[in-house]
Amino acid sequence: MKVVLRNPRRELELPAPRDVEALLHELGVVPESVLVIRNDTLATRDEHLDDTDVVEIRPVVSGGAR
Question: What's the domain range around 54?
Answer without folding.
Answer: 2-59
